[in-house]
Here is the input.
Amino acid sequence: MQRLLINLLRQLDITYRFLSPTGKAAKILSNYIDEEATTIHRAIGLNLKGEITEEFVIVDEASMLGVVLASRLLRNCTHPNVRILFVGDPFQLPSVDAGCLLHDIISSKQIPVTELNQVFRQEEGGILDIATKIREGTQFIESDFTGHVLFGSDLDFYSVPQEKMVGGYRYGFNKQLEKYNPDDIMVLSSTKKGGLGTISINNVLQEVVNPKCESKNEHEYGTGIFYRVGDSIINTKNLYDTETVDGEKTNVVNGDLGKIIEIDSENNKMVIDYGFAKVPIGFNDLDTILHSYCITIHKSQGSAANAVVVVFDKSHTYQLNANLIYTAITRAREHVFMLCQANVINRAVKKVANMQRNTFLWELLVSQNA
Here is the structure.
């Protein structure tokens, strides 16, 4: 759809710009359209005064966009005839920031909305079929099922007892390593804590992907968390006006992924390569990063990987809902390995995330057109 839009805008000689709420989403979009897409944060600048002068602005992954950032975006669009197209999936998780922009826009029925509901693929796989069933709240497996079933050609579903979950995700990750590089595999959990949360899973997978080695510098943070050269990390806070190793300034936003390329114990710092910049970080500021071998499903929004290993356990029941499962499996480009208990999935599929946010955006949209 984006490529078709680009061709049309070029034919009409209309200037355009592609934006996204996160660095991950912008990078994926750039690769897809084969030209630059940037984050909204970088477009509006460090001082929030950067002008967006294009006539047509496309905001991808709009379900992740909160009302504060959206307000800044709209204020900084300066073309007198500017038009803005928000593109997103309303069934994905709502923004972690204030508001639920995409949901309010659609439900207000005051702004033109086009729904793309026809899939143009010659051969459908299990991921698409199961994602559709989840959106519809339809059960796709018997609750008492135990074992393995392959849906289509691209979704391996394993229902196992709780005591086999740790061995199960290790098996699933190692199976993906037979075909994919570690950077092409995304492991997801719905929670940070517990034996099947991201912290514990990261400790296990770090020893698989980047084990302790005398030739690699490392630093222990807290108790039992080691950061090593070569580790994959995710930034967890918006860091504006951050100095790079070259002495320039940049924004590192929540969700940006990077790799540790240097650990300097003498000067109590490390250097992280985010792709767009190499950024030093002091040992006292390591609360702004986490290992990213396994991340929460919320953190995965806007990103994608060739293979996804997703862990849904009985201990996660409180957090689980249909939107969370849908978001997790649709991160995969090629293959999903789902590890769970079938009855847990069936309960979650019946629950839909609460999209209501008390920002009064919906009321304002309706009143402006009353």
Q: What stands out?
A: Residues 33 and 213 are 40 Å apart (CA to CA). The chain has two domains: 1-119+355-368, 127-350.
